[in-house]
Design brief:
The chain is of the alpha/beta class. The chain is built from five helices and nine strands. 40% of the residues are buried. Bound molecules: NADP nicotinamide-adenine-dinucleotide phosphate (NAP).
Length: 236
């Protein structure tokens, strides 16, 4: 059985990707800080408590996984945080969290696993965001972190394609998850105004199902309609 590592597997998009990979017969190591919020259990879904912004702990966890697994085939860099508002109102700790979680950790985790993924001719799937591609007022730091991740992803594909590594960037638009708990807006009420974690997981399945030699390097997933709901509370 091939192994996959999915960061941010305790919720939303990451949890749906983890479930999909289990369904596709992978042993999935999910990394997150708190799995108490999920009720999904499977013998092939291994929960690893890890704050991915703590590089030394991340390195230890990767060593541990490598010691159990002969073939690590997929890394999904999915964990992410977003804080939105006028840039001067987002405090320095939150700005640091955005960059450390969304950009630094995927770069470090990829470094720790790249030799292994070259051996397995495997996949690195980076969950970026539509905000990487558009101008994002009230989300300048978040969109910069995602633009950085997308650029890293594209450059890494050029660097590693000869070695058989498939590097893919997914750019989801507004997805119905807990992601906007901290924000003063969320997805619209109607079904056509958001995508779901399952939509992104289905895209992962499509990525894995391409013929050998074909790589879908960039997928953008958008809802049919653009609508957001403003919440009463403002950012804390
Ligand atoms: N929702 C959207 O509209 C949307 C759109 C485009 C892109 N995205 C991206 O999709 C990804 C998943 O977001 P989501 O919508 O599924 O949101 P979510 O439900 O809030 O999930 C975020 C996940 O990231 C994990 N995480 C955050 N900080 C972490 C850390 N320091 N260490 C380990 N895990 C951490 C969380 O786990 P713990 O809290 O348990 O650690 C959780 O599992 C993010 O990268 C986000 O930027 C989301």
């Amino acid at each position: 059985m091939k192994a996959a590592i999915v960061t941010g597997a305790s919720s939303g998009i990451g949890l749906e990707i983890a479930k999909k990979l289990v369904e596709l017969n992978f042993k999935v190591y999910g990394l997150a800080r708190d799995f108490s919020k999920i009720d999904y259990k499977n013998e092939n879904f291994i929960l690893i408590n890890c704050d991915i912004t703590k590089s030394n702990i991340l390195e230890e966890k990767v060593k541990e996984i490598k010691s159990y697994e002969k073939e690590i085939y997929i890394l999904v860099n999915n964990a992410g945080v977003g804080y939105f508002g006028p840039h001067e109102e987002i405090n320095t700790r939150k700005l640091h969290d955005i960059i450390a979680t969304n950009l630094e950790a995927p770069i470090i985790l990829t470094h720790l696993l790249l030799r292994t993924l070259k051996e397995s001719q495997g996949f690195i799937i980076n969950i970026s965001s539509i905000t990487a591609k558009v101008i994002s007022p009230i989300g300048a730091a978040y969109s910069a972190s995602k633009a950085g991740l997308s650029h890293f992803s594209e450059s890494l594909f050029e660097e590693t394609r000869k070695k058989g590594v498939k590097v893919v960037t997914i750019h989801p638009d507004m997805t119905k998850t807990n992601f906007y708990n901290n924000a003063n807006f969320k997805e619209g009420e109607v079904e056509e105004s958001f995508i779901t974690g399952q939509c992104v997981a289905d895209a992962v399945k499509m990525i894995l199902n391409q013929r050998e030699g074909t790589v879908l390097t960039d997928i953008t997933i958008r809802p049919q309609k653009h609508m957001i709901t403003k919440k009463k509370s403002s950012i804390k």
